[in-house]
Amino acid sequence: MSKTFKADEVASHKTADSLWIIVDDEVYDVTKFADEHPGGKKILQRVGGKDASKQFWKYHNEGILKKYKPKLLLGAIEGSAKASAAPAPAAAAAPKPVLPKPTPKPAAAAAPAGEKKKSEALEQFGSMVPYGDPAWYQGYHSPYYNETHAALRAEVRQWIEEKVEPYVTEWDEAKRVPEEIYQDMGKRGWLAGLVGAGYQAKYAKYQCASVKPEQWDAFHELVLTDEISRTGSGGFVWNVIGGFGIGLPPVIKAATQSVKDRVIPAVINGEKRICLAITEPDAGSDVAGLTTTAVKTPDGKHYIVNGEKKWITNGIWADFFTVAVRTGPEGSGMNGVSVLLIEKTMPGVTTRKMDCSGIWSSGTTYITFEDVKVPVENLIGKENQGFKVIMTNFNHERLGIVIQCNRFARVCYEEAYKYANKRKTFGKTLISHPVIRLKLANMARKIEGTHNWLENITFQAEGMAEQEAMFRLGGAIAALKLDATQTFEFCAREAVQIFGGLGYTRGGQGAKVERLYREVRGYAIPGGSEEIMADLSIRQAHKVHKALGMKL
Ligand code: HEM
């Protein structure tokens, strides 16, 4: 902290011409800011020259200070802890444990997945709001995480808290995220690990600082996705990984080598963008009914593509489109579907941004393909066997949705929990009212249930080959997606109720829950609607268990 002030010096700055206030032992010059203060000028003048910490925390959340500090901060009160402390990195802000630490288990017991799990990560991390973070953040035993997961968690959280969270509402309202953010994720080596197919070291120019490529597992992907979802903005999460996480895996798994070499490095290094285009105005979960056609030219060198795609995340910014097309005759259903890589530079590709209820900064797009000439080398997988490529992609997509929904549900809970501890009604804090505690209890038990099932399925997937995972876990993942979106919906609803009018207002203290409430349907409908998920969960499990020798 560079400059310090005595309290009586601050006290002399209490007029409209020179207006200073103290918040948590730090001194802010709000003279110019007062005119644009959304809460009003007079309210600031009333606390001019004084310690306004109590009033400040009544009306704002942490994000405000992070955002305005660089502009308004003058220094600290002389003799205060703030005066001597160097600003602590956000990720290091977790309180010190007050209870004895849980005893680490012997490495062997904590290492069911083999070599990679060397030791448990038992350090406390985060706000320690009960259930406000997964249990392993709060010092409880877990067989799934080790010190590399903890290191990645800290790395991502610090970045999110400093570079993203203070601006996320602004970006959502502007319906876009600065391009540097996605590029930064590439440079941090994070995109290379988010494709559900191991860390793409071969194509990565950059490497993740806290995890070596050979250590990377599905739980690192879980931690990374979970941490970026703490922003409480589906628009932000889908902006940076929504198109990428589902558009790139088919290329990695089934494209020709020349396409892989051209597309994978550009995308994982954050230089280009990719999206997945399956849904059409008239074909959503019913993939077999899609009508976009790809007809081979007589010389067999190209496909001519015609059709429309709708609700395509990131489409507006994408350089590459992983597109499901019909190469078989009309009525060929799932046996006539192929996947093609179409490029923005190809004549006949047009994109138009769509307006939806939520997830605003994700760039939801309507795409038209008109006589687009696509080289046959851009075929992903085999002709007429694209359905398999699409189906293989679904598990990864759905698990991503589950991770995001689960953290969004937790964000709703955490925000509501914190607010319930500061907001007073009828002379006591909200949390003192049993009816509010009941809401929080029901939120927490649902969130923990989903999270534990998510971890278990992630662990199962780690131990299975892709085809086996598709067969054995497809049903359970569908059920989990259903569970996650319904938990998210419940928690968003209850959090808005706890926030009252602030949860119904865009921006301000209830910004996250207001936004998330609008985003629930954006998760419950795509990637397999709740109805399709419920049906599939039983149908698929029945098929699997019949094959496993089920006796009825
Ligand atoms: C560093 C000083 C401050 C900054 C940067 C600041 C910034 C803001 C911002 C951005 C908002 C919009 C709502 C939001 O995004 O949360 C807001 C609202 C508000 N602020 Fe401040 N503020 C400051 C100090 C204060 C103080 C000291 C008081 C009270 C004495 C105050 C009272 C309010 C009120 C009443 C609202 C409206 C809340 C609502 O809509 O429910 N602010 N402030």
Task: Describe the SSE topology.
Blueprint lengths: L3 E2 L1 H5 L2 E2 L2 E6 L2 E4 L11 H6 L6 H7 L2 H11 E5 L3 H4 L62 H18 L3 H7 L4 H9 L30 H11 L5 H9 L1 H11 L2 H12 L5 E4 L15 E4 L5 E11 L7 E7 L10 E7 L5 E5 L11 E11 L3 E2 L5 H37 L1 E2 L2 E2 L4 H29 L3 H34 L11 H14 L5 H18 L5
Parallel strand pairs: 1-5, 6-9
Antiparallel strand pairs: 2-3, 3-4, 4-5, 7-8, 8-12, 9-10, 10-13, 11-12, 14-15
Helix pairs in contact: 6-9, 9-13, 11-12, 11-13, 13-14, 13-15, 13-16, 14-15, 15-16, 15-17
Account of the 3D structure:
The strands form four sheets. Strands 1-5-4-3-2 form a five-stranded mixed sheet. The protein has a four-stranded mixed sheet with strand order 6-9-10-13. The protein is α+β, with helices and mostly antiparallel strands and 552 residues long. Strand 7 (293-296) and strand 8 form a beta hairpin. The chain is built from 17 helices and 15 strands. Helix 9 (218-228) packs across helix 13 (386-422), helix 13 (386-422) runs antiparallel to helix 16 and helix 14 (434-462) packs antiparallel against helix 15 (466-499). Helices cover 44% and strands 13% of the residues. The model is unreliable at 88-99 and 106-115 (pLDDT under 50). Among the domains are: 4-87, Cytochrome b5-like heme/steroid binding domain (Flavocytochrome B2, Chain A, domain 1, Roll), CATH 3.10.120.10; 274-384, Butyryl-CoA Dehydrogenase, subunit A, domain 2; 397-547, Butyryl-CoA Dehydrogenase, subunit A, domain 3. The radius of gyration is 25 Å and the shape is globular. The structure holds protoporphyrin IX containing FE. The site of protoporphyrin IX containing FE has 21 residues, from strand 3, helix 2, helix 3 and helix 4. One of its GO terms (biological process) is fatty acid beta-oxidation using acyl-CoA dehydrogenase. Belongs to the acyl-CoA dehydrogenase family. This is Putative acyl-CoA dehydrogenase. Pfam families: Acyl-CoA_dh_1, Acyl-CoA_dh_M, Acyl-CoA_dh_N, Cyt-b5. Residues 93-116 are annotated as: Disordered.
